[in-house]
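Quick one, tokens below:
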């Protein structure tokens, strides 16, 4: 249903009561899907202190950290677009570029971590590449990158 705001609302209430271990995990996933990356990160960090044997939490912690960097980069880029002072605009553009590079490095580390390629991290890398190409007005190349990402995602869903 993709109603993540209500999922967060009801799962937040559910964890106030007696619940199974999976309930807070679903809450943090819903928070991430709702764009609440900082809240999701805080939740996963709390979860891993309570359940240090959990294998999922470390991956989501790194994922949310990278999503936060991307979000901060987008906010800096928006400040650059709205700035009326050329010096402030340039400073915000530089900050956005620095944050994007940090996010890209985080995604690259996640994409190659473990035994298999992380499809979510690879998708984020491809998204960032397409956005960069769009900023450079290289639209056909951006479309090609997104088509490649779509094709890879489709292959993941159709594997036996």
């Amino acid at each position: 249903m993709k109603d993540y705001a209500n999922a967060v609302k009801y799962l937040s209430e559910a964890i106030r009561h007696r619940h199974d271990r999976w309930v807070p995990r679903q809450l943090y996933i819903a928070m991430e899907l709702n764009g609440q990356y900082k809240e999701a990160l805080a939740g996963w960090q709390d979860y891993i202190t309570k359940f240090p044997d959990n294998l999922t939490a470390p991956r989501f912690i790194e994922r949310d950290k990278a999503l936060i960097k991307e979000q901060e980069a987008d906010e800096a880029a928006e400040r650059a677009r709205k700035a009326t002072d050329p010096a402030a605009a340039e400073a915000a553009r530089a900050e956005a570029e620095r944050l994007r590079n940090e996010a890209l490095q985080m995604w690259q580390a996640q994409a190659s971590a473990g035994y298999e390629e992380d499809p979510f991290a690879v998708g984020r890398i491809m998204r960032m590449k397409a956005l960069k190409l769009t900023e450079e007005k290289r639209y056909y190349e951006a479309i090609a990158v997104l088509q490649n990402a779509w094709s890879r995602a489709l292959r993941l869903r159709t594997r036996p």
